[in-house]
């Protein structure tokens, strides 16, 4: 399923969750993750809506508590911070995605975090609203270029999010491919990034029961 | 002045895009927004190679022109436009082609339906609340029925 990894349909947004879903459908998406949504809708206009929870930079125990208290079926995002925090976040059970990569200082996301993310099957979200915003564009393009180099080497899951807080911030797949080309991401990589959420939410097990005999 | 033979003419490509904004911008205003974002993304040198221009605009659709091979860059530039005439906006690219005629065939005009819900601007299933009565500006018909 082609997924927009993060839209912010919260109370401060002027766009309803249904309108986000409708716009996503017209942009060619079949699933969106609504971060801290104001409404509880599971599907609209043929687009399935997953709930997401964003956990900010918290200290040790508060972070583990926040992850534990998250209800089942919710996609857990963690806002990246210092290198040591990122290593803890990646290895914590229940964390699905790392976000806020563009705000990191240079070297905040290194080869060790990349290797851990690949081992733990934790995804890294590329927020395209940072490219659209002229103030954060340069930093975002440079960070995403670094992340892409790590991804090509360590093969951790990469996801693409519009990061939109209004429906005007959502972009269609052609535009996403064109924007990703700015930091050297190929069309094939974009398509696999848009389709990689299933691999994170239901990873392949080493042993899988195919048929059960009674 | 003699006309250039077809083999020496610059090859061009055209991009049809939809302008999503509450205001009704003129072709010149659309061009200004597009040119600003082209320069911001690729600089003056990139813009000079790309030759961006808006060649047609009607209602919520417009057609932009560029040099062949720069379509992707033009779509990226259109995608980063966030304002037209100071109002929030989005340029959503619809199709790319070698002729203006084939793009005009892809234009679908959605009839505005103001009568059904006063205070709302309806186009298909999408609704824009002009009065912002309920705090949400962008809704769907189902959101209004729910109220």
Automatic annotation (TrEMBL), chain A:
Part of ribonuclease P, a protein complex that generates mature tRNA molecules by cleaving their 5'-ends. It is an enzyme of class 3 (hydrolase). Belongs to the eukaryotic/archaeal RNase P protein component 3 family. The gene is rnp3. One of its GO terms (cellular component) is ribonuclease P complex. Its EC number is 3.1.26.5. It comes from Methanocorpusculum parvum. It is found in: Cytoplasm. The keyword Nuclease applies. GO terms for molecular function: ribonuclease P activity. Consists of a catalytic RNA component and at least 4-5 protein subunits. Keywords: Cytoplasm, Endonuclease, Hydrolase, Nuclease, tRNA processing. It catalyses: Endonucleolytic cleavage of RNA, removing 5'-extranucleotides from tRNA precursor. This is Ribonuclease P protein component 3. One of its GO terms (biological process) is tRNA 5'-leader removal. Its main location: cytoplasm. Pfam families: RNase_P_p30 (PF01876).
From TrEMBL, chain B:
GO terms for molecular function: ribonuclease P activity. Its EC number is 3.1.26.5. It comes from the Archaea. It is found in: Cytoplasm. It catalyses: Endonucleolytic cleavage of RNA, removing 5'-extranucleotides from tRNA precursor. Keywords: Cytoplasm, Endonuclease, Hydrolase, Nuclease, tRNA processing. GO terms for biological process: tRNA 5'-leader removal. The keyword Nuclease applies. Belongs to the eukaryotic/archaeal RNase P protein component 2 family. HAMAP family: RNase_P_2. This is Ribonuclease P protein component 2. It comes from Methanocorpusculum parvum.
């Amino acid at each position: 399923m082609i997924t927009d990894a993060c839209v912010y349909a919260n109370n401060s947004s002027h766009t309803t969750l249904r309108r986000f879903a409708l716009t996503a459908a017209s942009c060619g998406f079949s699933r969106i993750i609504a971060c801290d949504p104001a409404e509880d809708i599971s599907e609209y206009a043929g687009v399935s809506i997953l709930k997401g929870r964003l956990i900010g930079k918290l200290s040790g125990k508060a972070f583990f508590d926040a992850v534990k208290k998250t209800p089942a079926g919710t996609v857990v995002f963690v806002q990246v911070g210092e290198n040591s925090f990122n290593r803890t976040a990646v290895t914590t059970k229940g964390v699905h995605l790392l976000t806020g990569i563009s705000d990191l200082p240079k070297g905040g996301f290194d080869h060790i975090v990349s290797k851990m993310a690949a081992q733990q099957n934790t995804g890294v979200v590329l927020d395209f609203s940072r490219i659209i915003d002229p103030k954060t564009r340069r930093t975002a393009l440079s960070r995403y270029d670094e992340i892409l180099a790590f991804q090509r080497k360590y093969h951790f899951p990469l996801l693409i999010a519009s990061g939109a807080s209004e429906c005007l911030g959502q972009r269609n797949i052609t535009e996403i491919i064109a924007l990703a080309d700015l930091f050297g991401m190929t069309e094939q990589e974009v398509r696999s990034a848009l389709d990689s959420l299933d691999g994170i939410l239901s990873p392949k097990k080493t042993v899988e029961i195919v048929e059960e005999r009674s | 002045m003699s006309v250039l033979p077809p083999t020496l003419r610059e090859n061009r490509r055209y991009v049809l895009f939809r302008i999503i904004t509450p205001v009704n911008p003129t072709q010149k205003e659309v061009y200004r927004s597009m040119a600003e974002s082209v320069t911001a993304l690729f600089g003056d040198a990139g813009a000079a190679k790309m030759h961006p221009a808006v060649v047609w605009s009607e209602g919520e659709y417009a057609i932009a022109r560029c040099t062949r091979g720069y379509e992707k860059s033009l779509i990226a530039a259109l995608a980063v436009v966030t304002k037209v005439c100071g109002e929030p906006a989005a340029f959503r690219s619809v199709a790319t082609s070698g002729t203006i005629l084939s793009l005009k065939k892809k234009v679908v005009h959605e009839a505005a339906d103001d009568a059904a819900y006063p205070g709302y601007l309806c186009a298909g299933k999408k609704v824009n609340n002009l009065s912002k009565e309920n705090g949400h500006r962008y809704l769907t018909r189902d959101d209004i029925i729910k109220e």
